Amino acid sequence: MRRLGLPLLLALPALSLAVAGLFHPHHLTYDTSWRWYTLHLPGLLAFPLVGVALASLVRLRTDSLAWAIRLTAYVYATLYTALDVVSGIAAGYVTHELGPGVARPESVSLLFRIGTPLGEVGSWALLATCALLALDQIRRHGAVGAVALVLLPGAWLVHVDHIFSPRGVLGMLLIAAGTAAVAAVEATRRKSSG
User: Fold this and answer.
1) How many helices (H) and strands (E) does the chain have?
2) I need a labelling partner for 97 at 20 to 30 A (CA). Which of 89, 148, 154, 162 fits?
């Protein structure tokens, strides 16, 4: 069980976002605004932890590929969290405070014009992180490292559908599974070589 501890811990941020995605409204209206707002509050903690989990898969390494993985994970964590704050927390809160029956003002649309491009760059960084991790794992571990390939469709689904159900939820589940699988391969390899 102890060998599964770290892989499960590293999968937890993406897994929690997959669960949150089951409840995430597809559209922001007054009726959905409070749920929109409250779901994005814990996202403020969970989205960057996905990046931390991915970066931790290359911990203690100093090679250039490990640093590229850390850098892209950092860009994802920073910019996708900005999306969460602006288009999630702020837009949800303002929409709720406007009250029922009020048409969306331009100011709320402006929040999405800020958050959406930040999230776009962040999700491309997530894809880059996952591609680099897959390359790294296959290069270092051969066929066993190919478990990292599951990260790629996961990151793509998040890129195209955020955490919206069903595709975004599946994306986060694949990221959780891929993160746990890579951590398990690393732990097994470290144990067998040490």
Assistant:
1) 7, 0
2) 162
Dist. CA 155–CA 39, nearest whole Å: 20
CA dihedral 19, 25, 30, 34 (to 10 degrees): 10
Q: Give Rg (Cα) of the chain.
A: 18
Give the separation between CA 86 and CA 112, rounded to whole angstroms.
Answer: 7
Asked if residue 54 lies in contact with residue 7, where contact means CB atoms within 8 angstroms, the answer is: no
pTM summary value = 0.94
Reading the block at residue 127, the tokens are 């894809």
